[in-house]
Amino acid sequence: MTLPHSGLPRDEVFARLDVLRRDDLDSRGGRTWAYVYDSGRAEVDEVAGQAYLAFLHENGLDPTVFPSVLAMENDVVGIAVTHLGGDEHAVGSFTSGGTESCMLAVKAARDRLRERSGPGRARVVLPDTAHAAFSKAAHYFDLEEVRVGVDPTTFAADAAALTAAIDERTALVVVSAPQYAHGVMDPVEAVAAVTAERDVWLHVDACIGGWLLPYAARLGVEVPPFDFRVPGVTSISMDLHKYAYCPKGASVVLYRDADLRRHQFYACADWSGYTVINPTMQSTKSAGPLAAAWATLHHVGDDGYLDVARRTQAATRRLIDGIAAIDGLEVLGDPRLSLVAAHAPAYDVFEVVDEMKRRGWYVQPQLAHGASPANVHFSVTATSEQVVDAMLEDLAAACEHARGIEVSDERRTFLAALRGLDPDAFTPEMYAGLLAAAGLGRAASGPNAGDGAALPPDMATINAMLDALPAALRERLLIAFLGELFRPAPGGRADAVSPGAG
Ligand SMILES: Cc1ncc(COP(=O)(O)O)c(C=O)c1O
């Protein structure tokens, strides 16, 4: 890819961008049951978009230069603290997303442990179901990750097993409210009783549920205490770009008091440039996401959020009942909020996912892990209410389709062989071979020679293969795949995305 010699006219720029997005999932309208959150109110998106653009060029790097950025952040964090039962001592930061919020909490807890106990490798104790963001944090910040199995029926963390894993190098314990995979709540109070007594940091990952849970409780859903009202909860992550329906790039990480948050901050005055003071990971950052979050929260308001929560709850109940009525499909655990996972012991759920895609729906495949079998995951949002019945009709048909697919003996043998592979014996060539076998390899010849890997339309075979592989091999294979996927567009390809070529 090279720059166009002369700048493209505005219309041409947008026409090309439209071509680039032609294969994207619909983010609005309810057909996409993962990744996107739709309040079903177009004017909420408009208000957010306008605020985003209005602050696009303000830089969050230095809160003393753009006081609006500081004021908006204090407002948004203040709203979040109130929402989650924090008192006048609670503080927090606005971050780019759930992963950043979780990672910052881990980093803060690690640094507090270092201050208290000196050098030595810190540990993070967490249930199997805690989000991968915590594994990423352990990897980036060099903590030992201690994963503890969950109850095999409810998929909730086992409070006794989790707290039994605490030792003197434990920087923090993590629980979720709720966890993503099955949408079930961990026993926050039971874990907090022990961490409080032992003076250990407890982080509640409420990235996906934090905003919705208090509204669900007001609507009569049984919500166990999970926030700062529980003594012993040290920090909480909560995303605004999920059930607060703010545009992406909006989350908060909250701390019971400012002394805890101090460990999150970074300052550098020991170089030759401007003084760096960074509360979060990024340095230069657009104020657009913050302004959009501020605008969305104020525009929707408390009654608006109660209303979208009501619609989300109605759709969730309808989904759970609808799944129960489909032969062979079973909900995992007892989800109450808005995330539902279902498995099919007698047929391949990955075939269900592919058939749903052919029918115009995106539902998310989840691989087997620990006690959790391979399953299909649904994130319910306010718009789901309008489409849930139509979706369930197609889901029943997709399950029928999957039931009719015979798994060949060759495929069974191939998958069994994958289960026994040793990650350490694998060479880069073997990864390339495995990627090619899955149809994910880079085109070696033909019109697309040299292009990065592209996803085939049907993913069931690939998902079955990933499902069979040991986790370490899955990860290495996925990293090899990413290496294929992200390749600079070759020279002269600028025209390839022109509307004419589309
Ligand atoms: C419980 C939980 N924690 C953390 C995250 C990570 O959030 P993000 O994708 O915004 O980085 C998610 C995302 O779904 C989540 O569900």
Automatic annotation (TrEMBL):
The keyword Nucleotidyltransferase belongs to this UniProt entry's keyword annotation: no
Keywords, in A-Z order: Aminotransferase, Endoplasmic reticulum, Lipid metabolism, Lyase, Membrane, Pyridoxal phosphate, Sphingolipid metabolism, Transferase, Transmembrane, Transmembrane helix
One GO term (biological process): carboxylic acid metabolic process
GO cellular component: membrane
Cofactor: pyridoxal 5'-phosphate
Pathway membership: Lipid metabolism; sphingolipid metabolism; Sphingolipid metabolism
Gene Ontology MF terms in the entry: aromatic-L-amino-acid decarboxylase activity; pyridoxal phosphate binding; transaminase activity
Membrane topology per record: Single-pass membrane protein
InterPro entries referenced in this protein's UniProt entry, alphabetically: GrpII_AminoAcid_Decarb, PyrdxlP-dep_de-COase, PyrdxlP-dep_Trfase, PyrdxlP-dep_Trfase_major, PyrdxlP-dep_Trfase_small
Compartments reported by the entry: Endoplasmic reticulum membrane
Chain positions found as N6-(pyridoxal phosphate)lysine: K242
Pfam families in UniProt: Pyridoxal_deC
Entry similarity comment: Belongs to the group II decarboxylase family. Sphingosine-1-phosphate lyase subfamily.
Protein name as catalogued: Aspartate aminotransferase family protein
